[in-house]
Amino acid sequence: MNYSRILRIAWDGLMLNKVRSFLTTLGVIIGVASVIVMMAVSAGAEAAIEEQINSLGANLLIVSPVRGIPGASRTLLYEDAEAVGETVTGIVGFSAEQTPAPQTIKANGITLESIAVVGTSADFPQVRDYPLAEGTYFSAEDNDRKLKVAVIGSGLAVDLFGEESALGQTITVGSTRLTVIGVMASKGVVADVDYDGRVYVPINVVFQKFMTTSLMNKDSVRTIYIKVESQEKLDSVTLQVRSLLAARHDVDPAKPDFTIQTQQDVIATQEATTAAFRDLLAWVAGISLLVGGIGIMNIMLVSVTERTREIGLRIAIGAHPSYVRAQFLLESMILSLAGGAMGVVIGVAASILFGAFGGMRTQIVPLSIPLAFVAAAGIGIFFGYYPAGQAARLDPIVALRHE
Amino acid sequence: MTASLIEVKDLQKVYGAEEDSAVYALNGMNASVDRGEFAAIMGPSGSGKSTLMNILGCLDTPSAGQYILDGRDVSRLSKDDLADVRNQKIGFIFQSFNLLPRLSALDNVMLPLLYDTRAAQTQETQRQRALAALESVGLGHRTGHHPNQLSGGQQQRVAIARALINQPPLILADEPTGNLDTKSSVEIMDLLHDLHKQGATIVMVTHESDIARHADRVLCVRDGRLISDGRGGNNPCLAREVSA
Q: B19 in contact with A at a CB cutoff of 8 Å?
């Protein structure tokens, strides 16, 4: 028996009802497209999270104040960060950071509006794994002395000074004149932060010059990043920092007015937001594929009933029941695979559009395409088996009398 | 090789499993048809002639007894083996033609070749054979037509070409003129006569004595048994029709 000819018969059977065949595949199309999009969204989210880790640097603890706790009048202060640096063992360094409102920057006859200014302490490049391209970063002493210096992002350096070296130039940030002593290496935009377009200033200068309107303590910090020597010391350092800060803030260590997160915690938060979306798509995909499969089974059963006489004749003139089964199984597989192919096209297109306009990063996973086809073929076989069996079991005597 | 193409011995077909409710559609049927014979099977409805026809066509199997077709006992074969017997040994002609509406006359004729498990022929050989079969029934000029473009008589001729394509030893015709007008009926019977003259063995079920008279023999079936085997006035099946 020539299977290419059974395939031909199956194909002709489907072409008999083109619209119906197409509608039958819709469920599989949606299901497969959802699988592709789902995997693209997951991969995109994973890539974003990985970038985030890289942007933070390895073995990092992130200490931030808890806002809105009744009685927590004290917030995280710069002295807290210094105390951590002095007393906690097992750390490479710390970087206290504070971000004032964006400032206007003037230099070299150019004015730039709304530039992010970040106050940091001296260990910032080391703690955040973010090296300099040229010049030096300010020292702890520079910070203590509130030296009017700045290190600028590589993009900002080009915007302000072009080909010229930025080192030694003077920039006016808000109303404060600062001398550029370094340019950071290019890092690009990571997790929505344009590292290359920022100005890095000693945090004490920020307290003095840019936080003057703040109602909070003038030396409060937004975040303290602590770089730990090794992964194994993360727990010990976390404990030390917690008891130290709790004592300094005079709060119960079990109910602190600050949080200490590891990168894993940050990643978990990130993943939770994308996981919800991914789970939704997984449900859509699963239900669509199930409904699509049932739709195929339904149409195949209708088709077997409609073509009872044809099946009866084929069996009467010598078709083995297995050939009849193969014919109908092939029909349902063609339906599901065609649906799979269209679903792949739509899924890939949707992933690209989603990434471009949907505000969600997507990355098409090549493996998802063969996976989708395997799923589609599986559905065709699984849901086509029963109708094909019905066809193969027909009694030719009864089938030929069917009206 | 025996002279008999068909031999049935003590053929029984029972419907219903229980002793008291069992219905004997065939109850000890004995008959034989020789090679080259043209036999008609007649009988009132409920006589068991349809059951006999189904068993002779290997579409059904007897409950007891033997059916020997072309020297082989086919009464206890598997479904697949029966399918091969139908494909290679029997050419079916149905009352309602049973052509596939989507296929051209030529493709309809080629259909049995698709399921032939013997050594495969090339597509071209199959086409040539189908064309020759259509020529032989006088439809060489209608090969590309679909069934709905053909008259009833023409459709039945396509069906006959389909029955001939595998050169089976037995042609089984079930009321071949039942759906045709008188003129077409005459044409079809002439065609069957021609086939018979060329040596084909034909078994035909009919309830019309006019049609049955075309055959060499008329097997008259009643109550699941053969009650008369011959032609002329002494055959109750023919006589009844004549007197009616």
A: no
% of chain B exceeding 90 in pLDDT: 66
What interhelical angle do A368-392 and A321-357 show, nearest 10? 150
pLDDT digits (tens, 9 = 90+) for A357-370: 877 788 898 988 99
Helix count (H) and strand count (E) of chain A?
13, 14
What pLDDT sits at residue A217?
59
Residue-wise pLDDT tens digits, B154-164: 999 999 999 99
Count Cβ atoms within 10 A of the Cβ of residue A113 and give its class: 0-12 exposed, 13-18 middle, 19 or more buried.
exposed
Nearest CA to CA, how far is B15 from chain A (Å)?
Answer: 15
Closest listed residue to residue A118, CA positions, set A28, A13, A223: A223
Is the Cβ of B62 closer than 8 Å to some Cβ of chain A?
Answer: no
Q: How far is CA B107 from the centre of its chain?
A: 21
Could you tell me how far CA A214 lies from the centroid of its own chain?
A: 34
Do the Cβ atoms of A318 and B116 come within 8 Å?
A: yes
Q: How far is B232 from chain A (nearest CA, A)?
A: 32
Cβ count near B11 (within 10 Å): 27
Q: Which residue of A has its CA nearest to B122?
A: A2
Q: A11 to chain B nearest CA, in Å?
A: 12
| Interface subset of B 165-224, CB within 8 angstroms of A | none
pLDDT at residue A67, rounded to an integer: 66
| B3 close to A (CB below 8 A) | no
What is the average per-residue pLDDT within A368-385? 91
Comparing A369 with A50, which gets the higher pLDDT? A369
Give the residue from chain B lying closest to A317, CA to CA.
B87
B117–A400 C-beta distance less than 8 A: no
Average pLDDT value over all residues in chain B: 89
Q: What angle do CA B136, B142, B146 make, to 5 degrees?
A: 120
**Which chain B residues are closer than 8 Å to A322 by Cβ?**
80
- Counting other chains too, the contacts that A345-354 makes at CB distance below 8 Å and 24 or more residues apart are A346/A29, A346/A33, A347/A32, A347/A33, A347/A34, A347/A35, A347/A36, A347/A37, A347/A40, A347/A372, A348/A36, A350/A33, A350/A36, A350/A37, A351/A36, A351/A37, A351/A40, A351/A41, A354/A37, A354/A40, A354/A41
What is the CATH architecture of B35-59+75-243?
3-Layer(aba) Sandwich (3.40)
The residue ranges of every structural domain in chain B are 35-59+75-243
pLDDT of residue A388: 95
Residues A182-214: pLDDT tens digits?
989 888 777 677 888 889 989 888 888 777 665
Contact A1 B79 (CB under 8 A): no
Chain B CB contacts of A392 below 8 Å: none
Neighboring chain A residues of B161 at a CB cutoff of 8 Å: none
CB of B67 less than 8 A from some CB of A = no
Residues of chain B with pLDDT under 70: 1-2, 231-233, 239-244
Element (H, E) at B230: strand B225-230
| pLDDT at residue number A75 | 73
In this complex, which of A9, A309, A315 lies closest to B83 when CB atoms are compared?
Answer: A315
Strand pairing of A103-107 and A132-135?
unpaired
Retrieve residue B101's tokens. 């509406």
Rounded to the nearest integer, the mean pLDDT of chain A is 85
Complex ipTM > 0.90: yes
Inspect the interface and report whether the beta carbons of B59 and A396 lie closer than 8 Å: yes
